UniProtKB/TrEMBL annotation:
Keyword set, alphabetical order: Hydrolase, Metal-binding
NCBIfam families: D-hydantoinase (TIGR02033)
Annotated ranges, domain Amidohydrolase-related: 50-442
Homology family: Belongs to the metallo-dependent hydrolases superfamily. Hydantoinase/dihydropyrimidinase family.
Keyword Metal-binding: yes
Required co-factors: Zn(2+)
Record-given protein name: Dihydropyrimidinase
Post-translational modification note: Carbamylation allows a single lysine to coordinate two divalent metal cations.
Lineage, opening ranks: Bacteria, Pseudomonadati, Pseudomonadota, Alphaproteobacteria, Rhodospirillales
Organism this protein belongs to: Hypericibacter adhaerens
Gene3D superfamilies linked: Metal-dependent hydrolases, Urease, subunit C, domain 1
GO molecular function, one term: hydrolase activity, acting on carbon-nitrogen (but not peptide) bonds, in cyclic amides
A Pfam family assignment: Amidohydro_1
In-chain residues carrying the UniProt-annotated modification N6-carboxylysine: K152
Length: 465
């Protein structure tokens, strides 16, 4: 068999195994994983490197509408470039329902934004913020039939928050079509009430942000989302879980056989909460929703990851710039105000190296668990497996080669997104993806990044497994 590419002598790491082998690629697909493969047209020496499936980042925000006056820094060019440099080969951003547009129009518009710009492959979730009888009766079933099988709903945020009756309708429609409902689980009424009380007391600094949405707010909404799933029989994904209390509810549901999946993110596993108390505007770099918590919650989340309560670690990349007229700083007036800073952090490029360092290098996760939660599980959950998230013959040749033992300091200046900071500035990393292949084409190689924006393709969803 003629091989276009052979990645030779690396340590192949999958969600279940680890072994020395060569990986052979033909026409963008993996065709062989074995020792001593025949010579390929292109040969890569991976001696000493880990050969892993490219990451699948199943939660990121790219080119969405403005929120609280702030605009996302990354378009599809920048987001997919950063992702590729960080070892990720598939992203799943959200097509966000807009007032006055049909969901179909929104999806078509979003395709238009990605086409011609994406460097790596992508699939879409949909955000539902306006629930109506035609949406439930016609639009959603038609989109599900076309392969859009994951919908995010919010239990908080003005303009997005749905009431329980609406969520029940969405979940029921999703269940009928075999789709997955993703839930942002925070009780918006409580966030609003707590926020008003803090304001009335004059506590408006960013330290108050976490107090306006404490773990009880997330715990209650998480339990309610699980109860709604139980009542409708729908499968749910609780996204970006931040607290041990929410995790307890997830375990509660899973122990009872309710189909509850869960995701957490590096910003919660790393316990960024104390940074919200940094003086001045610096704290704004750590404002995201739910708020990051402290080390006790982080320790609980690591346990949840180790025990399998969480299936996914995603970035929730939501890159509002710090400076500039559309950035976090300009939204708060003279002084930072906890209700005026738009929530969201950049993280597509840093997700994998941070999780490897904090998880694998610190002995909290095996390499198999790392691959499972960052690539294989997201591909499975969202119907992209085995084409994505896998190194088995027949899979797309989406592969990241990792160097370990190369200690380096994370600096925003070395990243490739269009944001102007990273909340992880100065952190130490012990492993890094040095080369990334997307469908057998090199898109990142030790500081070089492909400029072939537009080569990325939409990957149609199938029914979630
Ligand atoms: N959380 C964020 O921090 N930003 C965007 C949306 C979300 O749920
Ligand atoms: Zn959310
Ligand atoms: Zn999000």
């Amino acid at each position: 068999m003629r091989l276009d590419l052979v990645i030779r002598n690396g340590t192949v790491v999958t969600a279940s195994d680890e072994f020395e082998a060569d990986v052979g690629v033909a026409e963008g697909r993996i065709v062989a994983v074995a020792r001593d493969l025949a010579k390929g047209d292109q040969e890569i020496d991976a001696t000493g490197l880990l050969v892993m499936p490219g990451g699948v980042d199943a939660h990121c925000h790219v080119e969405e509408p403005e929120y609280m006056g702030a605009r996302l820094a990354d378009d599809f060019v920048a987001a997919t470039r950063g992702a590729a440099c960080g070892g990720t080969t598939t992203i799943m951003p959200f097509a966000n329902q807009l007032p006055g547009k049909s969901l179909r129009e929104v999806v078509e518009d979003y395709h238009g934004r990605a086409q011609g710009k994406a460097l790596i492959d992508y699939a879409f979730h949909l955000i539902l913020s306006q629930v109506s009888a035609p949406l439930i009766g016609q639009e959603l079933p038609a989109l599900i039939a076309d392969g859009y099988r994951s919908f995010k709903v919010f239990m908080t945020y003005p303009g997005y928050m749905l009431e329980d009756a609406q969520i029940l309708e969405v979940m029921d429609a999703a269940r009928r079509g075999g789709a997955l409902t993703m839930v942002h689980a925070e009780n918006g009424h409580c966030v609003h009430w707590l926020g008003q009380r803090l304001e009335a007391r004059g506590e408006t600094g960013l330290g108050a942000f976490a107090e306006s949405a404490p773990p009880a707010v997330e715990r209650e909404a998480t339990h309610r989302a699980i109860a709604l799933a139980e009542i409708t029989g729908a499968k749910v994904m609780i996204v970006h879980v931040s607290s041990g209390q929410a995790l307890e509810q997830i375990r509660w549901g899973q122990d009872r056989g309710i189909p509850v999946l869960a995701e957490t993110c590096p910003q919660y596993l790393l316990g960024l909460g104390p940074h919200l108390h940094e003086p001045g505007w610096e704290a704004a770099k750590h404002v995201c929703s739910p708020p990051p918590r402290g080390s006790d919650d982080a320790a609980e989340l690591w346990r949840g990851l180790q025990q399998g309560a969480f299936q996914l670690v995603s970035s929730d990349h939501c890159p509002y710039r710090f400076a500039g007229t559309d950035g976090k700083r300009s939204q708060g007036g003279e002084r930072p105000h906890f209700r005026k800073v738009p929530p969201g952090l950049p993280g597509l490029e840093t997700r994998l190296p941070l999780l490897y360092h904090e998880g694998v290098a610190q002995g909290r996760l095996t390499r198999q668990q790392f691959v499972a939660v960052t690539a294989t599980n997201p591909a499975r959950v969202y119907g992209l497996y085995p084409r994505k998230g896998s190194l088995m013959p027949g899979a797309d040749a989406d592969i990241a080669l990792w160097s370990q033992g190369e200690r380096r300091i994370l600096r925003h200046a070395d990243l490739h997104d269009d944001c102007d900071y990273t909340p992880y500035e100065g952190r130490e990393l012990s492993a890094w993806p040095v080369v990334t292949f997307s469908r057998g084409e090199k898109v990142w190689d030790r500081g070089w990044v492909s400029n072939a924006a537009g080569r990325g393709r939409h990957v149609g969803n199938r029914s979630p497994s």
